[in-house]
Each structure stands twice: as C-alpha cells, then as structure tokens.
Structure of Enoyl-[acyl-carrier-protein] reductase [NADH]:
Amino acid sequence: MLNLAGKNALVTGIANNRSIAWGIAQQLHSSGANIGITYLPDDRGKMEKKVAELVEPLSPSLFIPCNVENDEQIQSTFNTIAEKWGKLDILIHCLAFANKEDLTGNFSQTSRPGFNKALEVSTYSLIQLAGAAKPLMTEGGSIVTLTYLGGVKVVPNYNVMGIAKAGLEMSVRYLASELGPSNIRVNAISAGPIRTLASSAVGGILDMIHHVEQVAPLRRTVTQLEVGNAAAFLSSDLASGITGQVLYVDAGYEIMGM
C-alpha cells in the first residue's frame, strides 16, 4: 500500500482549485504526508489569501511565500523547513511561466527577456530548489516536476515553453545523476492537457483537450487527481528504483502517431 506517513512534502505552484499542484497536494495528504505549501506573494496579499483558503483542509504545517526569481525568498523557504521540520522528504515542483506574447506567432521572434524569464521560472527554478533541498533530504528523498509533450514535439502556441520543458526534462536527468548517491530520486510527470490557469495562456487549449479526447487510447484526457496519484507513487517507496524518468500521464496520447 502507498504510505507517506512520516514524510514531509513541500508543494509549490498551487494557484487555484484547477492547479495540477492542488491535485498532487491532495493525494500526498491522503497518503499520510505532512504538507508544506509555498505561494507566489503579491503586493495585495491576494494570492496568499486564495491559496490559504484552498489548502486549509490539508492542514499544512508550513505555509511560506516563495518567488523563485528571488534568491533570498528561496533561501528563507528552506531555512524555515530546516527550522520547523528538520528534514525534507518530498519536493513537488509545479512552476512554469512564459509571457503570453512569446507563446504565439513566429518562434524566431521570441524576445530575449521573454526567453530568459520562461527558462528562469520554468527550468532553472527546479535546479535551484533541488540544490536547496539536497542538504535537507538527509534520509533520501523524491523530487517530482511537471512537464508536457511540447518539450519533445512541436505543439501549436507552445513556442518558448517547449524549450523550457525540454530543458526541464534534461535537468531531471542531470539532477538524478548528481543526487542519486544521496538516495534522492528525481522524476518528471508529463501530463496531458488540463484546463488550468497556466494552460489558459496557451492559445487553443480547449481544442487541444478535445483532440486528445478523440485520439488518446482512453478517449479522454486526465484529471488533476490522476496526476496527483502518479506523483504520490513517485514520491513513495513503491518507486524506490525509479529516477531520471519522464512518466506520461496522458491517457496514452503520447504513443499515437496520428
């Protein structure tokens, strides 16, 4: 049986009840993990309030502001984990961003600032968070991130985010190689298209979802909770021999040629 009792799990990237990170947090909690949540702070405190209300049923023992573009906030986050928990067992990375104008039009017209921002938030943040988590995973651990098919194949209106996801998947492999001797596993889940706040920036997302429903072997797309189940599995001892992998949770769409 999947059992995460006694495990401390930090979940990043929850924005609302449609977030894949929210589905993952629920499944980790259901499996017995002690949950910590980070949120993206803003001047009005709007995001803090929204996320706090959403995650209240999970009774998170940590609720921390963390903007991954701010080195001081990252360090503060892991200092708090060290102080309050002493160790970290599970890190869930669900962070991605690209300017909307860099997701449409000709890819060759991607702006330099837009490229840098997409790669910093969506790719480099995994490297940075993994590096900060490493000293706290004293009993080994599991790091899970989210990717998408657009990182290996051309998807309309994905553009620079495809480059970010390709970099993310390669980062998973390099991190798995580095952290493996410390018994820290690093894996990615490539989820099928789900209607979330992040995916709403991708033009034609509803058409993409309908296409998957018509073509995927299961004739449907997946839910946040199904992705959450996969993340809970990868975070558990049941996946103790799995690292450096990309697990497709997409109703089988990835296998289809047409």
User: Anything to note?
Assistant: The first helix runs from residue 20 to 30. The chain has one domain: 8-248. The chain has a mean pLDDT of 94. The helical segments are 20-30, 46-55, 71-84, 112-133, 160-179, 205-215, 224-235.
